[in-house]
Amino acid sequence: MTVPSQDEEARTQEMEQSEQIRVIRKVEQLQWMEQSQQIRASQQVKQSQQIEKPHQVEKSRQIAQAPQIERARQDSRTRQTRDDGNGPRDEAAEQTGMDLHALTDLDALYRNYRAYAFSIAYRMLGVVSDAEDVVQDWFMEMQSRDLTEIRDVKAYLARGITNRSLNVLKSARKQREVYVGEWLPEPLVADYESPEQTLERQDVISYAYLVMLERLAPMERAVYLLREVFQYDYSAISEMLGKSESNCRKICSRAKQRLKAGGVETDKPAAPGQEAARKLIERFIAAFERYQVEEMLELLAEDAVLITDGGGYTRSAIFPIISRGRVLALLTSPKAFKELRSWEAVLTEVNGELNLVFKKDGQLKGILCFQWTGEANGIQNLYLLLNPQKLSHLQTIRHE
């Protein structure tokens, strides 16, 4: 009988603890939603009681006739919204798409803005569980805030989520310095998410773009995303991050230079159409499984790079494999990736694009994502994720 090594036992315990933490987080999320519903019901009761009080109706009329026009208009909108739900919107409602009544409703706030909050946190962190934690913490904090004071919900949310993500990145930076081998982000796989999650995450970032963002320092990443992806102007970014406009401009410029210096195009990475991508990936699978050197040679760009992430849990290259010759030699060698070839390779949508997942007995074992050449007719980079810790969030949900 084989006795597990101490390292194997430690890794098993770590994976079990990780799964327990995810279950606890799910329970906390459900509890939070129940609390928000209770708060919503309480607010509705209070609002109905206030509307029934004659003296408050009279007070509203007096304010409407007062010379303070702005105050009268705001109060009138509030009263109309409470009476029939169809009253005119104020400036904040026009910008966010929610009426004033919805703005004071935590449950509606969660439903309308959770997807937007996750899109920011996931782009900032590249870790699904951390992004979900940041989002949940922000909404929990909103329980104690007066939501009627928020003029622009999206900007207020972006500020809170971004700054929380920066705090997480600062603490995670030390952990990644001692990480075994290359660090790759966690992917989003449609087939391994619930229908609700798939709907929420329609505005997903490509995996290649997410890897590209790892080249940036935390503050560079924040400014770059807020400006280039979420299209906030520098005055808004300055207010969100507590930096001057000129400093934000310099940070964004530095981020672009850093990406270009690393050979990364700041535009969205090229991607072929769905059918073209399918054919390219099928050619790759055939060449990989049959050790076809010439076919693989035609697919790989001259400066192709292969990055693998096993996290110390599985065998993987510690350093990137650089150049077509070296990548070709590794992918077509009978001695390399024996286990990977024995698994079932399935074309699946990963981060909104066709990529490959590898399964063994129905269990997800690895994910291979492609970055295409500028002409979108060949493979520029390959990202192979084998770390079971980074796949664990995809093991709990599977729908056909």
Description:
There is one protein chain. The protein has 400 residues and is an alpha+beta fold. The protein contains 18 helices and six strands. It has helices at 6-52, 54-65, 69-84, 91-96, 100-103, 106-125, 128-141, 153-177, 195-200, 207-213, 218-229, 234-241, 245-261, 274-290, 293-299, 324-331, 338-342, 388-391, and strands at residues 300-309, 321-322, 344-350, 353-360, 363-372, 379-385. A six-stranded mixed beta sheet has the order 2-1-6-5-4-3. Strand 3 (344-350) and strand 4 form a beta hairpin. Helix 6 runs parallel beside helix 8 (153-177), helix 11 packs across helix 13 and helix 14 (274-290) packs antiparallel against helix 15. The radius of gyration is 25 Å and the shape is globular. 32% of the residues are buried. Mean pLDDT is 79; it is low at 46-103.
